[in-house]
Design goal:
Elements (H helix, E strand, L loop, with lengths): L1 E10 L2 E7 L5 E7 L7 E9 L23 H7 L13 H12 L3 H5 L3
Antiparallel strand pairs: 1-4, 2-3
Length: about 110
């Protein structure tokens, strides 16, 4: 990403000082001449995104739609990955996932891009 321009409009008028913390965050500190009942800050930036296109991976047809079905010979390879990390005795997580993905069966492909 490339930063093209920035603007910080403020009312009442203030003096701004800029610093950078150890994590790379830019911090603006405003100094006011006198107390006020109203404060308005409008910050705008213009950037250009220069990310490379998301890579397209070859995904087997059986893995493009949820719920997945596995061949018997591959179940052993999945091992503990088939065991839920958290208990869901009421099935709330399962119901949420099935409801979300029943609206869009190709959601697993979309989730893999986040």
């Amino acid at each position: 990403m490339s930063l093209w321009s920035t603007a910080v409009l403020r009312s009442p008028t203030t003096d701004l000082s800029w610093t950078e913390d150890v994590f790379g965050n830019i911090i603006a500190t405003a100094t006011f001449a006198e107390p006020t009942d109203v404060l308005e800050i409008v910050s705008t930036i213009a950037v250009e995104q220069m990310a490379v296109p998301w890579p397209i991976f070859a995904i087997g047809v059986d893995a493009q739609f949820f719920p997945f079905s596995y061949l018997d010979e591959t179940l052993g390879d999945l091992g503990q990955f088939r065991t839920p990390l958290y208990e869901d005795p009421a099935g709330e997580i399962r119901d949420w996932a099935m409801g979300s993905w029943s609206e869009n069966p190709q959601a697993p492909l979309r989730c893999s891009r986040t």
